Amino acid sequence: MIEENEMMFPPPGRTPQEDTAAVMKFYKLPKSFPNEVLEEARHVGERLKDPGKRLDLRKRFIFTCDPQSARDYDDALSLETDRRGNRVLGVHIADVSHFVPPGGALDREAYRRSTSVYLADRVVPMLPEELSNGVCSLVPGEDRLAFSVFMTFDKSGEMVKRVFAKSIIRSKARFTYEQVMKVIKGGAEGPSGAKLGRREATVIREIAALAQELRSARFASGALDIEMPEAEVILDEEGEMTGLVTRPYDESHQMIEECMVAANEAVAKELWSKGVKILARLHEPPEEEKLLMLRADMRGLGVKMGNIANQKVLAQFLKSIKSNPLYPTLAMMVLRSMKRAVYDSTNMGHFGLAKRFYAHFTSPIRRYPDLTLHRQLAAYLEGGVAKARVQPRLLAKWAEHTSEREQTAAEAERGLLEIKKYRLLEEQLNTRQILDYDAVVVKCAPFGCFVEIQELAVSGLVHVSLLSRKFVTYNESDHSLSAPGGGSWRIGDRIRVHVAKVDFRTRRIDFTPVDRTFLNRKPPRKPTKGRL
Question: Do 382 and 492 sit in the same domain of this protein?
Answer without folding.
Answer: no
